[in-house]
Write a structure and sequence with these properties.
The complex is a heterotrimer. By secondary structure, chain A is α/β, with parallel strands linked by helices. Chain A has 10 helices and 15 strands. Chain A folds into 2 domains: 141 residues, 3-Layer(aba) Sandwich (D-Maltodextrin-Binding Protein, domain 2); 91 residues, D-Maltodextrin-Binding Protein, domain 2 (3-Layer(aba) Sandwich). In chain A, 40% of the residues lie in helices and 21% in strands. The radius of gyration of chain A is 21 Å and the shape is elongated. In chain A, 43% of the residues are buried. Chain B is elongated, with a radius of gyration of 21 Å. Classes of the chains: A alpha/beta, B mainly alpha, C mainly alpha.
């Protein structure tokens, strides 16, 4: 109890000190835009490049083209927008491929400035990282063939749903299916391409995983059903002490939201 | 969080029906595939020593292609590729056909070696006794070859059971599939893989023992690989 | 059947795109690298295990026998998955470990068989010359045995190359895995993709087995 209070006091002091530094530096700025965006942003300006972690295996969000070696996607564009805000140039970015395991550690040790990598905002994670407001709402979704006429979980009684091994998809869907009296058969595969191929070949009736991943496999003959069977909000994460940077990133996103740029980007990547 | 903690083993014991169901599928698929492999192997093995060129050529094409490409690729082709040609086999049949064709090629080589081990003079002798080619094969050559081929055949049966784990890659409901599925749901990896390993050994060790015994008794042959 | 051929040709136009070919070709490199690593480790382990059993070293020989029987009679897939999920090795390492556990057991038997095939009379002859056990094994018996083992080792190498197709399961992007990645984006090319990689595996393995056959002819002619 005592220790908890001490930690709270320490955190309060830390936050106020950081807040003060952020305020004070914003008044006496020295950036190209004429006004400083904070200490962390200054450091990035000094370095001349924004270091960001993105996914490299989720098409449309962050995907490394095997042919060209270039990383592109919706989240990469968000990183570019932040780079434009801080450095005045959307191309001054250095991208690193991250996974669910590495992304928090790379922020902690200062190797990355921010991470935009289908990172779900949770209360637990907020304790150790700063998150922006959500820029994309996602959740477990279902992909079916357009020709199948299937419209939702309720239609999937006795149908085959392809899911990935070691994912929570099966349990979540089962929870939602039980009250509907729907009993789908789950077939587990080793990787997403196999599930998509199984869907195309007619081996399964539906392909279910997080929507972000499904979007990467969307094509002319398939559709993603509108329902979500869990709710995940994606946010851009920064290291806990860099609250000033978190604010800059969040402001950038807020501006993009109100100007409609965010929606345009989603449109561009086929995420609407 | 001991990965081999007692309660994890208890959880596995409570879910034993899942593992037994998988084991059943493994045994069923293996038995059917073995039957197919023996038929294919006998037919193509005899073709290998045929006096005509076409069957010999067909044998080579079958054996070389099958033995030099991965079983995984063959089975995936049957599972994901054939539906495009309008052939949608149930997953069990995909497994049986894939394993049967693959091991049939090895059995064909065993049969060929067996026939070649019988002295060619015997074929001539049979001809002079009025047997035709098929009669000589059936009554003179194959019965003698059978003794030579027994140890490598039991060995093929063993290899086939091990390879039946390929079904896990196409959601085939075999022992490997349920081991994988159950352990990734519950995270009881340790007990799951140990038990699955032991169950496979229960199936394969008797065959390994039989192979060695036959080799000793028939006094020849080396255990091949597949 | 007409639709099938059409699909194959259509798919080939996707598979044969420069970027996809390059992508697959890198996978061939991964497959070969993994196979080489596995066969080298397995050979060294196999020689050690085979000698332990051949020489009937007390206790160690029994342990080697238990290892060999347990490993070569288990599905390789199980060993790979156990290495990854139960032992928590990285994807590449669990591929190497799982495949080597199995392959070393098979090669141990090859080595033991090779050693047993050398006439025991040579032992007596060498002993009469005053050589010690280890000297005879190392300088007289093993070199001859190794020569006879070349064909079965090469044929095991082919098996290893084929079995690398399993490791995509744990995320190693070898040839089959890369074909599946392309398949995720172009499901319509699935037939062409499997056809293409089957041909690639065939070429690699055919060259290997042709080598095995020519070695076999040379050495068997010499040793009998």
């Amino acid at each position: 109890m005592r220790r908890g209070m001490m930690a709270a006091v320490a955190a309060a002091i830390l936050v106020s000190v950081l807040g003060l530094t952020a305020c004070s530096s914003s008044s006496g700025g020295s950036s190209g835009n004429g006004k400083s965006l904070g200490q962390s942003a200054d450091a990035i300006q000094k370095r001349g490049v924004l270091k960001a972690g993105v996914k490299i295996d989720v098409p449309k969000f962050g995907y490394k083209d095997p042919g060209t070696g270039k990383i592109d996607g919706f989240e990469v564009d968000l990183v570019r927008a932040v780079a434009k805000k801080i450095l005045g140039d959307p191309n001054k970015i250095e991208l690193t491929g991250v996974t669910a395991k590495t992304r928090a550690a790379l922020l902690d040790n200062g190797e990355l400035d921010l991470v935009a990598a289908t990172f779900t905002i949770t209360e637990d994670r907020k304790k150790s990282l700063n998150f922006t407001d959500s820029y994309f709402t996602d959740g477990i979704a279902i992909m079916v063939k357009k020709s199948s006429g299937l419209t939702g979980l309720k239609d999937l009684d006795k149908k085959k749903i392809g899911v990935a091994k070691s994912a929570t998809t099966k349990a979540r869907l089962q929870e939602k299916a039980d009250p509907l009296g729907v009993k789908p058969e789950f077939l587990e595969f080793d990787s997403y391409p196999e599930i998509k191929a199984a869907l195309d070949a007619g081996r399964v009736d539906a392909f279910s995983v997080d929507g972000a991943i499904l979007y990467g496999y969307l094509d002319d003959s398939t559709q993603i059903l509108p329902d979500r069977y869990s709710q995940e909000e994606y946010g851009i994460a920064t290291a806990k002490p860099k609250t000033d940077l978190a604010k800059v990133v969040n402001d950038t996103l807020a501006e993009m939201k109100s100007s409609g740029e965010l929606d345009q980007l989603k449109q561009k990547w086929g995420l609407k | 969080m001991n990965p081999l903690a007692w309660w994890r083993w208890q959880a596995l014991f409570e879910n034993r029906a899942i593992f037994l169901q998988g084991l059943g599928q493994t045994v069923l698929a293996s038995a059917l595939a073995l039957g197919l492999a023996l038929v294919l192997g006998a037919v193509f093995g005899v073709m290998a020593v045929s006096p005509w060129r076409l069957p010999r050529w067909l044998n080579r094409a079958y054996v070389e292609f099958t033995q030099n490409t991965p079983l995984v690729v063959q089975v995936l082709f049957l599972y994901l590729g054939l539906p495009y040609a309008g052939i949608m086999m149930p997953v069990l049949w995909v497994g049986v056909l894939g394993l049967g064709i693959y091991h049939g090629a090895y059995v064909a080589e065993v049969v060929r070696a067996g026939i070649n081990s019988v002295h060619r003079g015997q074929l001539e002798a049979a001809y002079s006794q009025g047997f035709n080619y098929f009669g000589a094969m059936r009554h003179i050559i194959l019965p003698q070859a059978a003794r030579v081929v027994l140890p490598p055949l039991t060995n093929q049966a063993l290899a086939l059971i091990k390879n039946s784990a390929v079904l896990a890659m196409i959601a085939g409901g075999d022992l490997m599939y349920y081991t994988d599925s159950w352990s990734s749901d519950t995270l009881h990896y340790g007990p799951a893989y140990i038990v699955a390993g032991l169950l496979y050994l229960v199936l394969t060790l008797p065959l390994a023992w039989l192979t060695t015994n036959l080799e000793v008794r028939l006094g020849r042959g080396q255990r091949g690989v597949a | 059947m007409a639709g099938f051929t059409e699909l194959l040709l259509q798919g080939m136009s996707i598979v044969l795109r420069a970027e996809n070919l390059r992508f697959l070709l890198k996978g061939v490199g991964v497959t070969l690298e993994l196979s080489l690593e596995v066969i080298l480790i397995s050979f060294l382990l196999g020689v050690a295990l085979g000698i332990l059993r051949y020489a009937r070293v007390p206790v160690l020989a029994t342990m080697a026998a238990t290892y060999v029987e347990a490993m070569r009679n288990s599905p390789m897939l199980l060993l790979i998955l156990a290495a990854h999920f139960a032992l928590r090795l990285t994807a590449w390492n669990s591929g190497v470990a799982g495949m080597s556990l199995y392959t070393s057991a098979v090669l141990a038997e090859v080595v033991r068989g090779g050693l047993n095939s050398i006439d025991r009379g040579q032992w007596e002859a060498a002993r009469a010359q005053g050589f010690r056990y280890v000297q005879i094994l190392w300088h007289v018996v093993l070199p001859q045995a190794l020569r006879r083992m070349i064909p079965p080792i090469v044929s095991q190498f082919i098996t290893v190359v084929k079995d690398t197709a399993y490791v995509w399961l744990i995320g190693v992007d070898e040839l089959t895995g890369r074909a599946k990645i392309i398949m995720g984006a172009h499901a319509e090319a699935v037939i062409a993709l499997f056809f293409t990689i089957a041909v690639v595996y065939f070429i690699v393995n055919y060259v290997l087995s042709a080598m095995a056959r020519s070695l076999e002819r040379r050495y068997w002619a010499r040793s009998f």
